[in-house]
Fold this sequence. Notes:
The protein is an alpha+beta fold and 407 residues long. The chain is 39% helix and 20% strand. It folds into three domains: 1-170, 2-Layer Sandwich (Alpha-Beta Plaits); 179-232, Orthogonal Bundle (DNA polymerase, domain 1), CATH 1.10.150; 248-396, DNA polymerase, Y-family, little finger domain (Dna Ligase, domain 1), CATH 3.30.1490.100. The chain is built from 15 helices and twelve strands. Helix 9 crosses helix 11, helix 10 (213-220) packs across helix 11 (222-232) and helix 12 runs antiparallel to helix 13 (315-327). The longest helix has 21 residues, at 262-282.
Amino acid sequence: MTIAEPDPAILHADLDAFYASVEQLADPSLVGQPVIVGGLGARGVVAAASYEARRFGVRSAMPMAQARRACPQGVFLSPRFDAYQAASTHVMEIFRSYTPLVEPLALDEAFLDVRGARRRVGNGETVAHELRARVRADTGLTVSVGVASTKFVAKLASDLSKPDGLLVVAPGRELDFLHPLPVERLWGVGPATSATLHRLGLRTVGDLAEFGEDALVAALGDAHGRHLHALAHNDDPREVEPERVLKSVGHEETFPVDHTDREVLVREVVRLADRTAARLRANGLRGRTVQLKVRFADFRTITRSRTLATATDLAADIGGTARELLDAVDVAEGVRLLGVSVQQLAEPGDGEQQALPLGVDAATTPSDERRAALERSIDGVRRRYGDASVLPARLASGRPAPGSGDP
């Protein structure tokens, strides 16, 4: 059991309907309208929906075609990630004005450890009230905040306080807060695990806490069973970790269903590699080691990696290597998550000499320089017209990869 502080000082701050809220701030005529942001093509998905749109059943990760049917009067917009990044940077600066211990999880959410602000500002609840007011006054955005003694409970508290709310879980009351909640609120309980727990008669976190660790391990496997047993008892010793030097850049996707179709998985690898390469270029980085992450239906996770002769930020290099790594993986038992990342990062020109291709017909094969120029041109088009505006050829034709993002 995590030892309680005199007052809760771990905050989870989550901006409400972030992408949609940024769009409403940029265009006041959208305020009060059902705004839906995402890929606008036939195979697009919803990235964010305003609370007005959510009343019609629209939610993140829903196919855009389904969202249009649910909310035909909605305002449908392509993402503008530069605008979201700028808004996020402003908000994170506000967070860091209260404490240097800020751990961003995404553009729109972060953990904060505000123990060091007690003397200057007050306890965790006082900081949360002031922080929420600052964000609204300085940016026009609303943020929901959970305050607790652990990261896990703080995250749950912010989720349950949405929209534009604040929920404090007092030390010593964490289990009273946790145990009535459905098991689906635990990190790591998706549809398959939920079904297993329900078959065992476990429907609340309290049911799971009383079930016993050994029994959970027998039902779910060692790592997964112990993880859920610990969370059900508020055993979460993780500290808030402020941003460190970037060691890897990547993207991963959890599928709504497990997949054994290798062609679907190859298409997903192509998409993940394309996003990873774009993120590298956005950060002015290249990397030498490509890593593939595969999580199977039973939550067993493996990684495979290969180090290239020279650093790259090109989707063709990253995707080709990741596909070769996937070729060596048996996917027959079903894959629930894929990830592609690049490590051994450096800025271009950090003592790395670009290798020249040998035995290549320059008339038919683009050079590295031409490929780099092409991919950077694509970055510019996507910044202006959205991620769905230009696709890798493998994604532009054929069926979509289930669980994928914009088409």
